[in-house]
Hints:
Blueprint: H1 3-12, H2 18-22, H3 41-59, H4 66-73, H5 77-80, H6 82-105, H7 107-122, H8 131-145, H9 149-159, H10 165-194, H11 196-217, H12 231-242, H13 245-273, H14 281-286, H15 291-299, H16 301-327, H17 333-361, H18 366-395, H19 397-428
Helix pairs in contact: 1-16, 1-19, 3-7, 3-10, 3-11, 6-7, 6-8, 6-18, 7-8, 7-9, 7-11, 9-10, 9-18, 10-11, 10-15, 10-17, 13-17, 13-18, 13-19, 15-17, 16-17, 16-19, 18-19
Pfam family, one: MFS_1
Organism: Streptomyces similanensis
Protein name: MFS transporter
Amino acid sequence: MSPADTGASAVVGAAPHASAASDPTAGGAADSRMTPGGPGYRRMSLALFLAGVATFALLYSTQALLPLISAEYGVAASEASWTVAAATGGLALFVLPMSALSERFGRRTVMTASLAVAVAVGLLVPFAPSLGALVVLRALQGAALAGVPASAQAYLAEEVRPRALVTAIGLFVAGNSVGGMSGRVMTGWVAQEWGWRAAVGVVGAVAVLCAVAFRMLLPAPRHFTPGSLRPRVLAGTVRDHLSNPLLRRLYAIGALFMTVFGGVYTVIGYRLTEAPFSLPQGVIGSIFLVYLVGTVSASTAGRLVGRVGRRGALYLAGATTAAGLLLSLLDSVVPVLLGLVLITAGFFAGHAVASSAVSRTAAHGRAQASALYQSAYYIGSSVGSTVGATAFHAQGWSGTVGVGLLAVLGVVAITVLGSRAARVAQRRTPVSA
């Protein structure tokens, strides 16, 4: 067993991956799935990269603008944060039904429809007459976007060879980071000159271009087999996944990492507008350039797993995130920026490792397995946004950092439990001759 496989088993406390074993063509000469450098791989990578850009740019389009939204509507951070939590909550609620549609109608079809509806709603967001209307539109936008993440991971699991899967999913996650970064940077500078409504309108226009390019570039699936839309079949698949301790641990890890990330990036704008920083909106938007670090850490997650295994990669991701949280407590711009760099690098590495492990672990119903991960992940984002903002209102930045550190401790504890479960499983498994 390779170090990467050993790490994966240690994280989730189980035997080697069933998905690769269940595919008779995995790694074999007859395997027609895509590999780096092979036909269609670059087009596929670019298409899903652009889908990730559009998804994250739309999903978090109001996050860097929360101080301006608070000022216009006369509300506190905890209330304005619902413009973020509603979008991520809508995605979390609808990702499983959307994944069922992708099992029946195809990954590419569902992703295309989801992006089309999401960008249409995005063009309406700038005209929201009240905070309540804005929250409703953001919830609808999140629900529409739900068809992208789980379908994308299922598409990759079916169309890319197992050994290249971590790298391929890492590139998709890297697109998420670029989308999150570009959306926030653009909105910061546009909002400084023309207000937050113009800023979210620009994000919507960029997302339209990404959606069109995605549909033109993504290769038609060659290994998709339509499934059933019957509720009983879907419920059975979900029950199977939730009864798997491997997947449950990975779902919890994704949720906890996103709790940290959602809390930090929802609140950071408020902190930087206050003394001793008092930064203008455009500069605050530029702070999100640190997402480029996430692009690198996500896209190189496969190499990290190859060196230290998945368990080691998760420990490193957690430690890096915790170090960034502690460093951000200092009341100076440079250490805060360095803290955000470490938080971003740790989060995206941990997310790429956990999400790729879900895709490789699921032996069937990969879209539902990925959907459950995405649901947990975005529930973590909603919790992080609301709890982080509430903690900031009550105790300042130290309260938000405290919430993040508790989530990181949860990641470490789950990884340790998975390691112990793996050792127990190894002792119970007879050694073959």
